[in-house]
Design brief:
It is built from 14 helices and ten strands. With 320 residues, it is an alpha/beta fold. The N and C termini lie far apart (48 Å). It binds pyridoxal-5'-phosphate (PLP).
Length: 320
C-alpha cells in the first residue's frame, strides 16, 4: 500500500463533510497561564462516538467498492477504533465484526455493541488479535480495516489537524497523542502542507515508548504490551506506513507517565469542564511538560478522545 499524502487528507475531509463533526477548538486562560504559551485544544472528545477514530474509519469504509461494502468489514481494536468502525459501518449500511480484548473497558465493549458491531473477544496477553481478525476476514470475504496502519485511516485521522489549521492558522508546535501512529502520521501530513514551520511532536506513554525507541533506532522497534492507564496507546509497535511518515515529518517523540496523565485529566475536568480519557490526555501532558521551550508561542494540542469508564474517571480525578 503506497504512503498517503496531503491530497488524501484533503479528499478524506471532503468525504467526512456532513458525517463527522467539525469539533471545536477550545482555549483556556488558565492553561495559557500555566504553559506560558497560547494553547489551542482541538477537542476530538466531542467527535462522534467520542474520539477522532470516526474520521479514519469512515474514510476507509467509504472508499471501499460496493461489492466490498456488501461483504462487510472486520477489525481488531483496544476500543475506540472498534466503536468507530461499528458506527461508520452502520451509517454506510455495511456489517462490521470487531475483535476486542476481553479486558477492554466495559463502556467501550457496550458502546461497540450499541453501535451494531458484532464482537469477538480475545485475550490480549496470549492471543494474536491481528491473526484472528485476518482469519475471520478470510472466512467471510470481508475487508480488514486495521486501527492505524492503513492509508485511508491515516488520511482520515489527518483531517483533525487540517481543521485545526483551517480554523486557527499556522502554529509553532503541534502535540499529538501517539499509539500506533495513525493520528500522528495524518496530522503530520496536514501540518507539513498547511504550516510547514510547525514542529510536530508525538506523545506516548513512558511505559510504552516504542515510538521513541523506533525514532532513535531508525527502524520499527517492538516492545511487550505496556502497562499504562492510556489504554488506547497500549500498542507494541508503529506501522509499516505510519513509521516512515513519522520519521520524516515529526520533530520528536516525548513520553509522559500515568501521573502526568491524571494531572491533565483533572485539569480538563476542573478548568475546561471536559471528560477526557487517559489516552486523550497524552498530547496535553506532553505540551505542558515541553511548554518552557514554546514560551509566548502558538501551540496546538489534539485532545484525542473522551471514552472512559466513569467510575475509573471519578477515581482518577477525585484522588489527590
Ligand atoms: C487510538 C487512540 C489514540 C492513538 O492513536 P494512533 O493512531 O493509534 O496513534 C490516541 N487517543 C485515543 C483517544 C485513541 O482512541
Amino acid at each position: 500500500m503506497p504512503l498517503p499524502g496531503f491530497v488524501d487528507v484533503q479528499a478524506a475531509a471532503g468525504r467526512l463533510r456532513g458525517h463527522a463533526h467539525r469539533t471545536p477548538v477550545l482555549r483556556s486562560a488558565t492553561a495559557d497561564a500555566r504553559a506560558g504559551a497560547s494553547l489551542f485544544f482541538k477537542c476530538e472528545n466531542f467527535q462522534r462516538m467520542g474520539a477522532f477514530k470516526f474520521r479514519g474509519a469512515f474514510n476507509a469504509i467509504a472508499r471501499l467498492s460496493p461489492a466490498q461494502q456488501r461483504a462487510g468489514v472486520v477489525t481488531f481494536s483496544s476500543g475506540n477504533h472498534a466503536q468507530a468502525i461499528a458506527l461508520a459501518a452502520r451509517e454506510l449500511g455495511v456489517s462490521a465484526t470487531i475483535v476486542m480484548p476481553s479486558d477492554a473497558p466495559a463502556a467501550k465493549l457496550a458502546a461497540t455493541r450499541g453501535y451494531g458491531g458484532e464482537i469477538v473477544t480475545h485475550d490480549r496477553f496470549t492471543e494474536d488479535r491481528e491473526a484472528l481478525a485476518q482469519r475471520i476476514a478470510r472466512e467471510r470475504g470481508a475487508t480488514l480495516i486495521p486501527p492505524y496502519d492503513h492509508a485511508d485511516v491515516i488520511a482520515g485521522q489527518g483531517t483533525a489537524a487540517l481543521e485545526l489549521f483551517e480554523e486557527v492558522g499556522p502554529l509553532d508546535a503541534l502535540f499529538v497523542c501517539l499509539g500506533g501512529g495513525g493520528l500522528l502520521a495524518g496530522c503530520a501530513l496536514a501540518a507539513q502542507a498547511m504550516a510547514p514551520d510547525c514542529a510536530v511532536y508525538g506523545v506516548e506513554p513512558e511505559a510504552g515508548d516504542d515510538g521513541l525507541q523506533s525514532l532513535r533506532a531508525g527502524r520499527i522497534v517492538t516492545i511487550a504490551v505496556p502497562t499504562t492507564i492510556a489504554d488506547g496507546a497500549m500498542t507494541t509497535h508503529l506501522g509499516e506506513l505510519t513509521f516512515p511518515i513519522i520519521r520524516e515529518r515529526v520533530r520528536d517523540i516525548l513520553t509522559v507517565d500515568d501521573a502526568d496523565l491524571v494531572q491533565a485529566m483533572r485539569f480538563f475536568a476542573e478548568r475546561m469542564k471536559m471528560v477526557v480519557e487517559p489516552t486523550g490526555c497524552l498530547a496535553a501532558a506532553g505540551a505542558f511538560a515541553a511548554a518552557p521551550r514554546w514560551h509566548g508561542r502558538r501551540v496546538g494540542v489534539i485532545v484525542s478522545g473522551g471514552n472512559v469508564d466513569l467510575a475509573a474517571w471519578a477515581g482518577w480525578i477525585g484522588a489527590g
